[in-house]
Design goal:
alpha/beta; Rossmann fold; 2 domains; 9 helices; 12 strands; about 35% helix; globular
């Protein structure tokens, strides 16, 4: 997998992915971008910009691309034209929703339009998946976040959850019933699960979730415990099911760390609204 970041947020997160060993490329008007995009005043102007992506196309060797972009910048107008150059690749899209309470009206409209367009592209199969995360939801999970380190901490959390879930989604569980998500469920997000209070913390509040995949990352000590661990997990999974038509699956994985963690992947086929709790049908 190779990573393409579009706009300021995409460029900054690409730097973190590069430190993890991924091949990354960024397209932005900032000086350190791999490909320089001119400054524009409107999203319509961005749509008309012509940039030479021949070098980028030649450099990208993987059949799988992760595209990272936030929905606030004017460069979003060029996103689809950029990705047209990679229509022979499997494209996963990591979409970062800004906190819209900090945006002006034109910014909120722009974000809503691009978010809905990208989801429609995913539902139609032009993207393999669109992974949605919300800056507001992530910031609420972080105890050490401040104005000074706001984007730094959020970006680090995005990288961490993506890296962890990519690893465990390809790993073989010690035990479980996990399968690939259904073909039509291409809109997704991540989450954390607290075993003690059974609280789910979503990175984007998906409406009408069709599938929940639980990844139990347990220490060797926990995995060797006798007693009712399996029964406890079974009861918690049943309580986590929201309605009879929602699929819930799980997998147990071994960790070299002493702290147990539980991650969740959520999948749906419903277009998500700004709040994540109203569907646009």
């Amino acid at each position: 997998m190779e990573v393409i970041g579009i706009g300021n947020a995409g460029r900054e997160i690409c730097k973190l992915f590069k430190h993890k060993g991924y091949n990354t490329y960024s397209i932005d008007n900032h000086g350190d971008a791999s490909i320089k995009f001119p400054k524009v005043k409107t999203i319509e102007e961005a749509e008309k910009v012509q940039i030479d992506l021949t070098g980028l196309k030649n450099n990208v060797k993987s059949d799988e691309i992760l595209c990272i972009m936030a929905g606030s910048g004017l460069i979003t107008g060029a996103c689809l034209k950029i990705l047209e150059n990679f229509k022979d690749k499997q494209i996963n899209f990591l979409y970062i929703q800004p906190d819209t309470s900090f945006m002006n009206n034109s910014g909120r409209v722009r974000e809503r339009v691009i978010r809905n367009v990208l989801q429609e592209f995913a539902r139609s199969g032009l993207f393999n998946k669109i992974w949605m995360v919300s800056n507001k939801s992530i910031s609420n999970l972080l105890s050490d976040i401040s104005i000074d380190n706001y984007f730094e901490k959020i970006n680090e959390k995005i990288l961490d959850i993506w890296h962890q879930m990519r690893y465990y989604s390809k790993a073989t569980p010690l035990m479980g019933n996990m399968e690939e998500p259904q073909e039509q469920n291409r809109i997704a997000t991540f989450g954390l699960y607290n075993l003690s209070d059974e609280a789910e913390q979503e990175f984007y509040e998906l409406d009408k979730v069709r599938e929940k995949h639980f990844y139990f990352i347990f220490s060797e000590e926990t995995l060797k415990e006798t007693g009712n661990v399996l029964d406890l997990v079974s009861r918690k999974l049943e309580k986590a099911r929201d309605g009879e038509f929602q699929e819930v699956s799980y997998g147990f994985f071994s960790s070299r760390y002493s702290v147990d963690k539980v991650y969740i992947m959520y999948y749906t086929n419903h277009i998500q609204s700004e709040t994540g709790k109203r569907s646009v049908l």
